[in-house]
Every structure is written in structure tokens, then in C-alpha cells.
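Take the subject:
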Amino acid sequence: MTGWASFFVSGSAKMKESAVSEFINVCSVEDLVSGAGVAALVNEQQIALFYIGGNVYALDNFEPIGEAFVLSRGMTGDAGGELFVASPLHKERFSLLSGECLDCDGVSVAVYPSKIEDGQVWISA
């Protein structure tokens, strides 16, 4: 990985896995590292952001197998068209689109809708 950064964002909305309530501005796209992850603290929840191919992907930074907040430090890759991040702990791969673990059935992390508008990164909360 070429770089790591963290951001703190506060707001009135709490992060929710199942419901899209609003988008929160997290950072500038210039704060991201192409092909790598950064961590953002949004409403007291760690979110891993990945900037790949001009798109931003947001998922929970907590890696459930190793039980640590490390996914933003994982290596990204592509397995047959499926973009993933590999945990830096045990190398399990998590889909950047669905959050599903590609190596362990029934294991996943939360994903959050995200977008880039006017050079700013937004995730739903």
C-alpha cells in the first residue's frame, strides 16, 4: 500500500447497515490514494474508503475474522472481475461491492453507498 490517512467526520446521523438516510461529506477525493485504502471516522464508526478506477467504495473497517479495525490497510485486487480488499491480518478477501468474504462462507462486512460529487467523497449514513 502506498499511503494511509484517517479522517474524522461528525454529524447528526448514525451509520446504518440497512437503511439509506442521507449522504455525509467525508473528505476530498484528493485525500484518497488511488488503489489503496484510507480510514474515516464517521459518527464514531470506522469506515474504510477505497479509490479505484475513479470510483470510491466504502465498507466497515472492522475485519471480523481477525477482530481488528484494519481493512483500510489491506491490499486491493481483482478476482475474476470482483474487486476486493485482502485483510492485512489473515489475507481473507472481502468484496468491495457486497462486503462478502470471498474465502469464508457466511462472513461479511457492511458496505455503504458512496459517491464522488464536485471532488468530494460522500457516503450514506
User: Anything to note?
Assistant: Confidence is low (pLDDT under 50) at residues 1-20. The domain at 6-73+109-124 is CATH 2.102.10.10 (Rieske Iron-sulfur Protein).
